[in-house]
Write a structure and sequence with these properties.
heterodimer; A: 419 residues; alpha/beta; Rossmann fold; 2 domains; 4-stranded parallel sheet; 15 helices; globular; B: 90 residues; alpha+beta; Ubiquitin-like (UB roll); 5-stranded mixed sheet
């Protein structure tokens, strides 16, 4: 067993503050509140300086003192440090002064932000001695657990709703994992996984390993700050499924300010959901923190289709506390958002990315994000995984014979006439 | 009697039993009876006002009681009740 981390001491209940050892447990014995990693920031401050971080490899593990494992990371050591793209053309299209895209569509190895959380969860799973790892997933997480478990030589099971996109099913099967499709919505998959985790002692990354897993998302926030030149962005738009990513980016900005790595400047976080499954956005709009579950999510943004979001309550408080807000968009707007991002910036995002872009547009149009401000959009997964969503909705293939005449008649003449 | 699946955090109260039986015509009655058999259990599942805690989900045959009649949801002898921590997934 690795020597305990000098920076990460315990798990702690977010509700009542009771402390727990760093084991595979995720809820408080007393009130079922979520357990969260506790760090010794005074010990971290002198070690984790800008210079120290800048001297390290370009991966999420350059912030390792703020990630909850004891030893060196052993799984997903190449994950993270994805591009932060200055998106001038998209900024003009959305009517905002300055805009950046945090592009996790090219995260390694499975093209979504989930590689960040899985890297932490499986590194910790190994430290805790698990031989079988598993997850409840809407697709991206399944891909990442399957790939990272394969490379680590761990046996894996991924449980998903039966109706996921082909790309996401194949993108798990290829790694030789056990893919179990459940006849039901994600929340039913999740409940089953909680019961399996309790019975068989497997390491479920987003159940009994969740306190470790969730912290991996913070790395997206750290990278954004560093890539902006060590500052917190004014406005950050984040897609919400469970709400965990939003709460962790909020936490990341706060930690960097606390450690003096960035100035403690005001910032706001905004949550994006699809209208067909928007329990958090709808609660936020109603002005309450009581999240009413959605029993039957209906949206093409399947990766965000969580009807009972575990972190909804905390996401609402993070948005309220920072002066942010939430928005939701229809399936047509999701497709329009995917196309706009692709056509303006050459970035092909999955449906969740379309949700984020179109929600940002609504927030800017409504004046909630000011037009003279600076914003970051978190784009979390690659479009090749959800091709069904846009098939037939973004132009058509033009077929001709290999003949110059046909090209001139059917392509060049038409295009010059149109121009 | 209906079967109740006990989550790991509550098994200290049920002598490590994963599954118990309890009588009751509604979820509320069933929780009261469970508490008599395993004192302290209701306090963990419900808050001071008697409502199911924010981070606890109760399912009857897989259906969340929040979509049914909450604690007034009727229970049949053949039903399977799951008490599941809400903090999971995503």
């Amino acid at each position: 067993m690795d020597k305990p981390s000098p920076f990460f001491s315990n798990l702690k209940c977010r509700e009542c503050g009771r402390l727990y050892p760093k084991q595979a447990i995720h809820v408080c014995d007393f009130d079922f509140g979520p357990l969260e990693a506790v760090y010794d920031y005074d010990a971290i401050r002198p070690v984790l300086t800008r210079a120290a971080i800048e001297s390290r490899p370009h991966t999420m593990w350059r912030y390792r003192e703020l990630l909850p494992i004891d030893g060196e990371p052993t799984v997903g050591t190449q994950v993270g440090f994805t591009p932060l793209v200055k998106a001038d053309r998209l900024a003009r299209a959305l009517g905002i002064r300055e805009l950046y895209v945090k592009n996790d569509t090219v995260n390694y190895p499975t093209l979504s932000f989930k590689d960040r959380v899985v890297s932490v969860a499986l590194s910790r799973a190994r430290e805790l001695g698990f031989k079988v790892v598993a997850c409840a997933s809407t697709g991206n997480l399944a891909n990442s657990v399957a790939a990272n478990a394969a490379s680590a030589g761990l046996k894996s099971y991924v449980l998903i709703p039966a109706d996921l996109e082909q790309g996401k099913v194949l993108g798990s099967l290829v790694y030789g994992t056990n893919v179990i499709g459940i006849h039901g919505a994600y929340d039913q998959v999740n409940r089953l996984c909680s019961e399996i985790a309790g019975k068989y002692g497997w390491g479920f990354v987003n159940v009994n390993l969740r306190p470790y897993y969730a912290e991996g998302s913070k790395s997206m926030g750290y990278e954004i700050c560093e890539q902006l030149g060590w500052r917190i962005p004014q406005h950050t738009v984040i897609p919400m499924a469970s709400g965990s990513l939003l709460t962790k980016i909020h936490k990341a900005y706060g930690e960097f300010a606390r450690l003096g790595l960035v100035e403690n400047s005001p910032f706001a976080v905004y949550g994006a959901q699809a209208t067909g499954c928007a329990p958090i956005a709808h609660a936020m709009k109603r002005g309450t923190d009581i999240v009413k579950p959605v029993p039957n999510p209906k949206t093409i943004a399947k990766s965000l289709a969580i009807g009972t979001p575990a972190d909804g309550y905390y996401a609402i408080h993070a948005m309220k506390q920072t002066g942010g807000s939430a928005e939701d968009v229809t399936d047509d707007e999701v497709v329009a958002g995917i196309r706009l991002l692709a056509e303006c910036e050459g970035i092909f995002a999955e449906t969740a990315g379309g949700v984020t872009v179109s929600c940002a547009k609504k927030l800017i149009d409504a004046g909630k994000i000011p037009r003279d401000g600076s914003a970051v959009l978190c784009i979390t997964g690659h479009g090749l995984k959800t091709q069904e969503a846009i098939a037939g909705k973004c132009g058509e293939l033009r077929l001709i014979k290999p003949s110059l005449r046909e090209f001139e008649e059917h392509v060049y003449a038409k295009d010059t006439a149109a121009a | 009697m209906p079967t109740v699946l006990i989550p790991t955090p509550l098994r200290k109260l049920t002598n490590e039993l994963e599954e118990v039986s309890a009588a009751g015509a509604t979820v509320g009655e069933l929780l009261d009876n469970l508490d008599r058999a395993f004192p302290g259990l209701k306090d963990r599942v419900c808050d001071e006002a008697g409502n199911v805690r924010r981070f606890v989900n109760i399912f009857i045959n897989g259906e969340d009681i929040r979509f049914l009649e909450e604690k007034a949801t009727p229970v049949k002898d053949t039903d399977e009740i799951s008490i599941v921590p809400a903090i999971a997934g995503g």
